[in-house]
Specification:
Blueprint (H helix, E strand, L loop, with lengths): L1 H7 L2 H5 L4 E6 L4 E6 L4 H34 L2 H13 L3 H4 L5 H18 L4 H18 L4 H14 L2 H26 L23
Antiparallel strand pairs: 1-2
Helix pairs in contact: 3-4, 3-6, 6-7, 7-9, 8-9
Length: 209
């Protein structure tokens, strides 16, 4: 979303030192070009997108951490403390203030984990929904594939094999759009699109191609 917004706002204008300024993002060890006199529409869109895609998922992650902690340790005060520390004293806080996919991906993954382990719904539905949430998490941020693969191995090892297949069906359903997109644009189902990010808009380690 950030890329599309910036691209639509003309990369050449962002590169002009007369109309833009470099703003440091120390929490991410990078800088970005920001327009000094950006239109209200762009500003409101950026704020609204940040709230929906980062801030709100960050709040919901804190609630999920409380819920999971309480279900595991059965101690309300300690669960509240764990959620507060997670929300205010971890990397979750800075990542909830900018429009990036990391926070949304983490929320989707934790939701899938909660459904898989603590939901009271029927087994087939629970495994299917968990797979969909975790697959969508991978689609938002590739790094989510590592905990997802680890959990998938545990499911095959310790869970009912019959119900486990619904989890993989859910994964396939949610990841399929990303695979089709990569095949159509890059002829590679597991290609990383970060390599084609415009360095004029994102002057960091991306955009090498």
């Amino acid at each position: 979303p950030i890329y599309l917004l910036a691209k639509n706002y003309k990369a050449n204008a962002l590169k002009s030192s007369q109309s833009s300024v470099l703003v440091p993002y120390p929490q991410f060890n990078t800088t970005v070009f920001v327009e000094r006199n950006e239109p209200d529409e762009l500003r409101y869109t950026r704020i609204f997108g940040t709230i929906i895609l980062s801030s709100l998922p960050g709040c919901l992650i804190t609630l999920l951490v409380y819920k999971l902690s309480f279900l595991i340790i059965k101690e309300k005060r300690l669960s509240i403390l764990t959620a507060v520390v997670m929300g205010l004293s971890s990397i979750l806080f800075p990542y909830s203030t900018v429009m990036m996919g990391n926070t949304l991906s983490t929320f989707l993954w934790l939701t899938g984990f909660y459904l898989l382990n603590f939901s009271k719904s029927e087994n087939c539905k629970r495994f299917l929904l968990s797979g969909i949430f975790m697959g969508t998490s991978v689609m938002v941020d590739y790094l989510a594939i590592f905990p997802t693969l680890f959990l998938a191995i545990l499911i095959l090892e310790y869970r009912n094999v019959k119900n486990s297949w619904f989890f993989f069906v859910g994964l396939g359903i949610s990841v399929l759009p990303l695979v089709i997109y990569n095949l159509a644009n890059f002829s590679n189902p597991i290609f990383v699109p970060y390599n084609y990010m415009d360095p004029a808009i994102f002057p960091c380690n991306y955009g090498k191609r």
